[in-house]
Amino acid sequence: MAKTKDAKETPLMKQYNAIKAKYPGALLLFRVGDFYETFGEDAIRASKVLDIVLTKRANGSASHIELAGFPHHSLDTYLPKLVRAGNRVAICDQLEDPKSVKGIVKRGVTELVTPGLSFNDNVLEKRSNNYLASIHWSGDKIGVAFLDVSTGEFMAARGKEDYISKLFQGFNPSEVIYSKSDRGQAEQLFHDEYNLFSIDEWVYSFDYGYDKLTDHFKTSSLKGFGIEEMGEAIIAAGAILHYLEETEHRETDHISAISRIDEEKYVWLDKFTIRNLELIYPQNDGGVPLIQVLDKTETPMGSRMLKKWMVLPLKDVNAIAERHKIVAAFHENEDMLDEIRGYLKQIGDLERLISKVAVGRINPREMNQLKKALKITQPIHHTLINHPIPEIKKMGDQINLCEFLLEKIEKELKEDVPLLSNQGNLINDGIDEELDELRQIAYSGKDYLLKAQKREIERTGITSLKIAYNKVFGYYLEVSNAHKDKVPPEWIRKQTLVNAERYITEELKVYEEKILNAEDKLFVIEQRLFQALVTAAADYVTQIQQNARVIGAIDCLSSFGLIARNNNYIKPEVNDTTEIDIKEGRHPVIEQQLPVGESYVPNDVFLDNNNQQIMIITGPNMAGKSALLRQTALIVLMAQMGSFVPAVSAEIGIVDKVFTRVGASDNLSRGESTFMVEMIETASILNNLSDRSLILMDEIGRGTSTYDGVSIAWSIVEYLHNHQDFKAKTLFATHYHELNQLSEDFVRIKNFNVSVKEVGDKIIFMRKLKEGGSEHSFGIHVAQLAGMPNKVVIRANEIMHFLEKDKHKNDTGEKLQEVPKANYQMNLFEADPRFKEVMSMMEILDINTISPVEALLKLNEIKGILNKKSK
After folding, report:
1. Is the domain of 736 the same as that of 829?
2. What is the pTM of this model?
């Protein structure tokens, strides 16, 4: 049966099916002439994603197969769409010139582009890394590796699930690979968050991974990278190198090192905190994350680095102080700030350009951009090394000027070059003798012939000599019969005319061959010379990657300096104490969103391990409790990532973990209730405490009944205060005023409230933090502000006053049955026409706008209507 089918297949489809079988999970783009074609299921998928026409063609038998294609020069337009839709795309090219082949052209996959592996500028986000992640489970330990093949950045880590989840939240990989044996764990951990791809189990073994890494880095061990003892991470990283080979990414010299993500070096931010504080992504559409306020970088390297700094704030006081010193220099010296940022604007993506050099994918225009970047690096280097501050001078010293490469590109590559290296006109004159000669021949043919004619006239004395061309025997010399006797013996007679003789010479034959093949040869030589230039540049990959890192850091720090100037931030003091003392702190995001003329109300926050470990903050909803909690965490994190902060002063004792349970983050799609999510996040906090933790808890327990909620919140605060090992600094916002009693029994708990001002029956939010607990929540006022019907608001007010008055009698809830009943007995009187008259009068009455005098008059009018009954 199979043989019959094979016999009916066309040679082209036979070749297609053989190649497709090697890449079963990928969408195959099959080059046929000037088109990339897709067939069958691939064609159906491609037509939907790309919105291109789906047709059918004969498959060499009675059957037909779906077909969808696009011109080969449109690859850069269509490839990004396919990859962003989560497809793995195998690009199958023609490996020989169809003109020189009889029968079927040889074809093969030249690249397999996956969501996590691409050099295509249209696939990549300029200001974001494009990470491929690999993950390996070994009991409760997980190894993970992250690679951005477009920059060469390669990192590995090991830890428990909560730590690994945090890394994934921060690095947000485009694709995750794992062993087929770990499918269940991968799907449970990631659900549908990432593009997942499983590979063979044998790849995920220690010996294979270790050998793969040492072979790649040409080292005898991995000690120099600090990962020698991280077995699970080594396995994950080795699998990435294997995956690169499988996807035809064999040029990997730019992946020159692997670094360890050291859990001890950076602040612990769990995945809930990264999300709740909206560091990189907003939680809601239209929201503004912190990165949007802080990222004023000029280069893609700087922007990508800033995202890493944001999710990996430092814990080392000296490293933080070094960043602050450099930011202060930019903050204080506006001229230097403007000068450096002016240079940075012109550099472009140096990191990805040099990666393209390493893998041989750089085009001539990008090579000129590399030249420009190297040129701009020089004044940056000189400005930095001549600065009096040692930390800035040190950064300047780390920049390699790569002068030889810069001179070579400037000397050899033309300024105005085409996009592709096979289009010619790339290389300057004077670089290659043969190239110059061919150019002269190809573009100055007439001049050459005139010179040759003049030279021969002078040599032979034949004044009537002419050089001409015909298709029969090409270029020739024509001599009139009068001068026949002067013809040199080496000339070969080709044709006799009535009045003249025609001759050819060895020189003319050589020239003829040259001129006819000059253009083809030109392109070949220029491509060879350009390739030699790329090879020369490849020797500088490590130095230029180092330059890119230094320039990225300078970009981040100058961005911090600019923001500090524009937004009135101050230099925080970060030290080894256990105190957080923020004077007049502001929320860095909210203050930027305020209407013109409105200023943010600042607040002080003081926390330490001895006197004020826990601040219980009460106050009405909408008064600013959540904003206060968030701004405290953001100020601490900004300080520890090296930025100045929005405050009048800030002393920050190093924080090693930040936990938040802020705002609703329900995960109902996974079948978890609001309360369940809240308890999972709270449990994560309580199980991972440290002595330098900062904890923010907002409205804990509101997802359940009042008594459960109060009990849980009370118990959590007690636990945090009485923990035998750690005194975690805590901001605890709540609407349970009962918690104010805790300060009477526990020495390190202090009560605060976000103040409001009552004006008659209305409230004004002051948004100012004051000592002491608040009396009640003003929730009913908030309901009124939200447009709740007046009947509901009035009834709620009635119940609230009753409960507050009765609270001291009984706290068990028994008195709830004595709440005054709402008067719903009106229906007994609905037959009374006077009632209907009063009701219609009440419906058109707006009690929010009526004056007291008008209200009395209305009341008198109603009384008159009702009195009609007794008369």
Report:
1. no
2. 0.80
